[in-house]
Amino acid sequence: MLLMTLRTLSVRALSGPAGNRTLTTQPITQHPESHKPQDPPAYNGQSYEEVVKLRKQYLTPNVTSYYKKPLLIHKGSGAQLFDQEKSYLDMFGGIVTVSVGHCHPKVNAALEEQLRTLWHTTNIYMHPKLHEYAEKLVAKLPGELKNVYFVNSGSEANDLAMMIARLYTGNQDIISFRNAYHGASPYTMGLTAHSTWRYPLAGVNNGIHHAMNPDPYTGIWGGKHCRDSPVQTTRSCDCQEGQCKATDMYYEQLEQIFKYSLPRGKVAGMFAESIQGVGGSVQYTKGYIKRAAELVRANGGLFIADEVQSGFGRTGEHYWGFEGHDIVPDIVTMAKGIGNGFPLGAVVTSRKVAEVLSQALHFNTFGGNPLACAVGIAVLDVIDEEELQKNSLEVGTYFLKGLERLRDKHDVIGDVRGKGLMIGVELVADKETRQHLSAPHFVDIWEMCKDMGVLFGRGGLNANVLRVKPPMCINRTDADYALAVIDYCCDQYMKKRKRGSRR
Ligand SMILES: Cc1ncc(COP(=O)(O)O)c(C=O)c1O
């Protein structure tokens, strides 16, 4: 019922001057498998109750589910997901992983062709897809970044990058940011800096230091020109455009780590997501990353860009998020969107750095598997052929501008940030103090969005950020629809809150 109401909602208020239109939900995407809301296809699998029972009984208890009544998704197409009852607009893409669209026909065809030809050999034999893919992937990277090692996940990629940095430099210490997420393996758990993701294990922090996060919204310093985004914070400052004092302050904090915590002049490396993903789409103050990379190199270290979420055109302006910081890293790690949902990851570096791996035998069974490589090649092709980077920029900027209007309208939206289709919407209890919205209140809004047919991710240390990172094939109609849903849900929530406060 709610869904029907929304589908005929006028979005004049959201779309700006040209926006006096009614939601049609008709897609304008070039993607052949369009994602207009449809009736769900027939499902003949296990019942919902059976799946819930099996999940409880046989999966380890740490396997979490989104939503009070978790969804049982049995089909995906373009930017749509289906359960037994209805279709959903997927604004989270399987955690920023479905880059070109669910079951994209070209990627499906590449995988089908490969599975009829050759599944697996390991790299002890040569097979053509691995080499074709390696050449194609590194062609997307600048400078000396021309050697690749394939892995199966982002954690594995970052594990390897940590090891390479330590071997290459002969140094042990590594820096990452507070609020970072770089994986959940015992090695990368140390880089990840949220207490929620940490087990109490000895050695996790071995040689790892967490720098103050240069976050212009929740951080202690920040103003209204700090971010490389179409939307700035509502904080005030007297900095001129391009002269962000917050960057200087945060950079001094980084220098303190070198002064107080590291052996003099010695660091193995620094990891940074180009935009923090799990941390809530947080962008750093402008210019910080470039200066940090210079400082790290001046102390003998390597700069490692974690592009697991921000790579492959998602940020719109660039193919890689690090380009937005005007740097060329020493190592780039990637996963998630690289395979559109197929388990695949990669570490790319220069020949000079990669040589250190020859000091011992290093092997994994599945990295560079023919099936994964066939998928990886098709994904690169689709991003180019369907101009998905350009689409991320256009639709993402349009979406961000719409969200900015919603932020100005609703007290519960404290911040809107991001680039392209890597967007965060931070929900707050108090706009002035930027106090985060507590979990039950956030869940009210987030569940309501789901009930209206739009799936968002959830992130940030306080789990109060709506994460908007859909397949890159979404169009403006989808964006309008998602904006209208957020608008409606925030409105309903605020009405409820006002009723509550009168009691
Ligand atoms: C930026 C970043 N790096 C690394 C990882 C770890 O990737 P995986 O879950 O594939 O191990 C993630 C996962 O969310 C991530 O967001």
UniProtKB/TrEMBL annotation:
Pfam families: Aminotran_3
Keywords attached to this entry: Aminotransferase, Mitochondrion, Pyridoxal phosphate, Transferase, Transit peptide
Disordered: annotated span: 16-44
Family of the protein in this entry: Belongs to the class-III pyridoxal-phosphate-dependent aminotransferase family.
EC number(s) from the headed UniProt entry: 2.6.1.18, 2.6.1.40, 2.6.1.44
Subcellular location, principal: mitochondrion
Function as written in the Swiss-Prot or TrEMBL entry: Multifunctional aminotransferase with a broad substrate specificity. Catalyzes the conversion of glyoxylate to glycine using alanine as the amino donor. Catalyzes metabolism of not L- but the D-isomer of D-beta-aminoisobutyric acid to generate 2-methyl-3-oxopropanoate and alanine. Catalyzes the transfer of the amino group from beta-alanine to pyruvate to yield L-alanine and 3-oxopropanoate. Can metabolize NG-monomethyl-L-arginine (NMMA), asymmetric NG,NG-dimethyl-L-arginine (ADMA) and symmetric NG,N'G-dimethyl-L-arginine (SDMA).
Main EC class the enzyme belongs to: transferase
Protein name, entry field: Alanine--glyoxylate aminotransferase 2, mitochondrial
Keyword Zinc: no
One GO cellular component term noted in the UniProt record for this chain: mitochondrion
